[in-house]
UniProtKB/TrEMBL annotation:
Pathway where this protein functions: Cofactor biosynthesis; thiamine diphosphate biosynthesis; 4-amino-2-methyl-5-diphosphomethylpyrimidine from 5-amino-1-(5-phospho-D-ribosyl)imidazole: step 3/3
Known catalytic reactions: 4-amino-5-hydroxymethyl-2-methylpyrimidine + ATP = 4-amino-2-methyl-5-(phosphooxymethyl)pyrimidine + ADP + H(+); 4-amino-2-methyl-5-(phosphooxymethyl)pyrimidine + ATP = 4-amino-2-methyl-5-(diphosphooxymethyl)pyrimidine + ADP
Keyword terms of this UniProt record: Kinase, Thiamine biosynthesis, Transferase
Residue intervals of the Pyridoxamine kinase/Phosphomethylpyrimidine kinase domain: 13-259
InterPro entries: HMP/HMP-P_kinase_dom, PM/HMP-P_kinase-1, Ribokinase-like
Lineage start: Bacteria, Bacillati, Actinomycetota, Actinomycetes, Micromonosporales
Name listed for the protein in its UniProt record: Bifunctional hydroxymethylpyrimidine kinase/phosphomethylpyrimidine kinase
Task performed by this protein: Catalyzes the phosphorylation of hydroxymethylpyrimidine phosphate (HMP-P) to HMP-PP, and of HMP to HMP-P.
EC annotation from Swiss-Prot or TrEMBL: 2.7.1.49, 2.7.4.7
Gene Ontology molecular function: hydroxymethylpyrimidine kinase activity; phosphomethylpyrimidine kinase activity
Broad class of enzyme this protein falls into: transferase
Length: 272
């Protein structure tokens, strides 16, 4: 069967734990046909981001139109946008209908602490988002107050709907967190109500790319026809399993990548 097309619009991570490389691994693991528009090139490994080379906005537009003309996606995720000029190019494509089922991961700072984006660039894209997936720090930066507890996350998810995104998931992962008693909690605004999604907490330093993989898996499931709440539940399960698989991996000296191997079924069960 011809696989559905799903597109990532994101930055390149030379260490391949996050960014476009992580997204394409997720799509391949889900047996989808992944395409990519590169917004920036980073020189990075598990320890740090050493340099960021922005891609010119026109080159981003050229990549988007090349795909729209020949390989149109059923769903799209955005990650690192880098500059407001690139964000404008991407929101222009969204406005003209080239980015259906849009998942916006508002990447602002890497796990290793480097700034990768700015709030006012991301805000240009949110009116076109089907779902946005900020972590607590990103939600705090967009809203201007500190989002910390599950109650805060629920309140933030509701407030972030004012940006124009139809659904909102505020994620509760944090590379430096102690194993939280309540597990891994995410808050999902469905347009009518907030649902707290709880999963088991995986104790590991290998958390590089959790947010990228989460938003890519949501886009992947939207391309397969899921509604957003089902896609989000699947993505949470995908990341938990990918964290567990790589729990004891020793790749690099910093926050290592996730395990995308061993997914033989689209349902994430590992079987057909
Ligand atoms: N240690 C963990 N154990 C279980 N689930 C986790 C863990 N860390 C993150 N998650 C889950 O991973 C998903 C992505 O959330 P997270 O908050 O890590 O994104 P993020 O901070 O944007 O990631 P990144 O730092 O890679 O950009 C969420 O469903 C979250 O609950
Ligand atoms: C190109 C690129 N995109 C996104 C991230 C965020 O991922 P993380 O927070 O896991 O570092 C990153 N480090 N690099």
């Amino acid at each position: 069967m011809t696989p559905p097309i799903v597109l990532t619009v994101a930055g390149s991570d030379s260490g391949a734990g996050a960014g476009v490389q992580a997204d394409l691994k997720v799509f391949a693991a889900m047996r989808l046909y992944g395409t990519s528009v590169i917004t920036a090139i980073t020189a990075q490994n598990t320890r740090d981001v050493r340099a960021v080379f922005p891609v010119p906005a026109q080159t981003v537009t050229d990549q988007l139109t090349a795909l729209a003309d020949d390989l149109p996606p059923l769903a799209v995720k955005t990650g690192m946008l880098g500059s407001t000029a690139v964000a404008d190019a991407v929101s222009g494509a969204a406005r003209s209908g080239m980015l259906p089922n849009l998942v916006v991961d508002p990447v602002l700072v890497s796990t290793s602490g480097r700034r990768l984006g700015v709030v006012n660039a991301i805000e240009r894209l949110l009116p076109y988002a089907m779902v946005m997936t900020p972590n607590r720090a990103e939600a705090s930066a967009i809203l201007g107050w500190v989002v910390s507890t599950p109650d805060d996350m629920a309140k933030a998810a509701r407030q972030l709907a004012a940006t124009g995104s139809r659904y909102v998931v505020v994620t509760g992962g944090d590379a430096d967190a102690e194993s939280p008693a309540e597990g891994a909690v995410d808050a999902l605004w469905t347009g009518a109500t907030v649902r707290l999604l709880r999963g088991p907490w995986v104790e590991t330093r290998n958390t590089h790319g959790t947010g990228c993989s989460f938003s890519a898996a949501i886009a992947g499931r939207l391309a397969l026809g899921d509604a957003v709440p089902e896609a989000v539940v699947f993505a949470k399960r995908y990341v938990a399993r990918a964290l567990l698989g790589a729990q004891r991996w020793e790749l690099g000296g910093g926050h290592g990548p996730l395990d995308h191997h061993g997914w033989s079924g689209r349902d994430g069960s590992g079987s057909e």
